[in-house]
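Exercise 7. Given the components listed, write out the predicted structure of the assembled complex. Treat all entries as one system.
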Amino acid sequence: MSEHEHGLPSVDARGVKRVLWIFYAALAVFIAIDVVWFGPDWLSNLGQDTHHVESAYADPAHADPAHAAPDTEEHWPNAEDSPQDQPQHPVGHTAETRTDQASFGGHKHGHYAFEKVPAFHALYGFAGFVFLVLAARVLRLFVMKDEDYYGDDAPLDAEQHAEDGHA
Amino acid sequence: MLENIAASLPPGLILLFGALLLPLLPGESPPADGSADGIWPLSGKSKMGMRGVLMLLLPILGLIQMWLLPLGHSSDVELFGYALQPVRVDRLSRIFGTIFHIAALISVIYSLRVRDTLQNLSGLAYAGAAIGAVFAGDLITLFVYWELTALTSVFLIWARRTNRAARVGMRYLIVQVLSGVLLLAGTLFHYADTGSLAFDLLSLDGSIGHLLIFLAFGIKAAFPMLHSWLEDSYPEATITGTVWMSAFTTKMAIYALARGFAGTEILIPIGAAMTAFPVFYAVIENDLRRVLSYSLNNQLGFMVVGVGVGTELAINGAAAHAFAHILYKGLLFMTMGAVLLRAGTVKGSDLGGLWRKMPWTTAFCVIGAMAISAFPLFSGFVTKSMILTAAADEGYTWTFLILLFASAGVLDHSGIKIPYFAFFAHDSKLLPKISGEAPRNMLVAMAIAAFLCIAIGVFPAPLYALLPYDVGDYSAYDLTHVVTQTQLLLGSAAAFVFLQKKGWYPAELRSTVLDVDWVYRKLLPGGLKATYNAIDKGAERTKAAVGRAVLASVNRFGQFFRPGDRSFGEPWPSGETAMWAAVVLVAYLVVSIVSSQVG
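Answer.
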């Protein structure tokens, strides 16, 4: 069990730095879009109790009652009253077509309120990844054995002899 | 005319029987210098030969024949009074049939230098059996192909011709055949209940037959706890064998679940667990082909969730993800196969810096890594999003969050770990020994798969048109989705950078990582041996104890009949004899009275 420590770094330090800068810039851009473009819409809806649920026409059996009706003026109490032109099946209609209400920027769609928190996905990815790696290191304490733990490389007839000898 | 010829033949048989012609054609024998897995190692020109031509022709002919069959085409036969349907063509079977043919063609190109006919033959026959299975309209036909996939593919492991491969192959075969036996048993129960052998929606309604069939599918789909055959066997097959194997068996099982158990709700937690647990193993596993096997298991989880959700969008998502997955997973296995061929190992602890010697393979690996991680403009992005959207549509919040977490996990093991530790990181000691880039035919196969990964990501419409249900105006490309998915991936990658800088990312160590197969490889054999020894020892002791007891009682018996110190030869006193005669007579009297009363 030797650690991975041999040879020289294969990419020079400046190259690594350059790649990392590009990476940080990309991360910043995608968080910035979230904050600057979607942020106003998120803020304007923050005080309100209802949140956007685009899949109001999803199977009502699973839907949260709070999510059952769209937060628009056209509020219908039950399915019978819904206009016939409402799509009846979720396929193909999750891509948001509703106009945004914010004065600036776009409307971030999603099924859950938490998805609309700016940079939620970046934070969730970061936290999830750190948890994953640290948990895997703990897992290693329990499940890591020597490379030839199972002895699968031993000659087959040797095993047979051993068994015969035992018998 | 062509249609009539096509209609007379079940799909898959062209590959299945065409493969049998391979040994009849003239061809070179495997290199005698013991080069890796029967692959002709010379760079430069290599004759493809007639066998190579046949190998290329079979998947192409098979694909043409399959597409000549119209939707709704079926053939019915009656065998021993049972109504069978060996062929049924619909949109669900056709998309799986299409990708299986494409996978077979790519695998063939990748295998063109393999001079070991056994591998090429079993690979083609294996593909044919899997194609036959997805067109099977009844459970008996399905069972036959189901078992054939096991019997043909095991030779891709045994072809390594090592002690390890012999053991792994046997374990693989036992598990696969067990799945087939469960399928047959379930089919018989199902037939007894319903009188029908048709393979349609079965659902878990409490019938034992359906449960057995569900378990049979679950084994091949590598459900949690039934999964470890996959991680045990796929990394132990030959360089080309693993590429073949990664495409068929598990996706055939996904097809079977989509056909038989769409909308079965228990599949959602099963699938979610499947996406999550393998990623932990993938972090600490050292064998990079085994890392990819855990990754394969994780990807199957997404498809199982899609099947469990069961809406049109979800089934479309499962089928589309299977299609994209076969391509990028095959691509990743091909790049690791090329590394194994050139470096002689795929242990992360021994590799690094290979981009210097294998730049093309590196580039293809990075494309595969981005496709599986679901970066926008790559295939995984346009297919995985359908499953996540469908799960959220139906209100499965926890499942949605687990799938998001698993997506971050995919980025770790397949997106970063595989390319990073193989091609970058620190220069390997093996680097001077690596002669160069992968052979040209392997590069062509990788290039085709890489091209398709990008093509599907950029123009998903042709794939969407193939899906079982109408996709409508669904599109993965809107600003929200692109922004959130990219954020998720970049945020996870930032965590990798952070953990590396802190020195917290686990180093690649030479090791064996225990999984569920430990139960039947160590615990049960060890337990059985211990139990046998205990019983053996117990039996010895019991035998000794009983022996002593019998001896003692014989002695006591003897004492009883021989009061004093008389020996056996001496006559008994007449009084004593009379008394015993009276006792016997009274006993006889009692018995006869009782028996007369009873009678």
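Discussion: Chain B touches chain A through 85 residues (CB under 8 Å). The CA atoms of residues 156 and 241 of chain B lie 5 Å apart.
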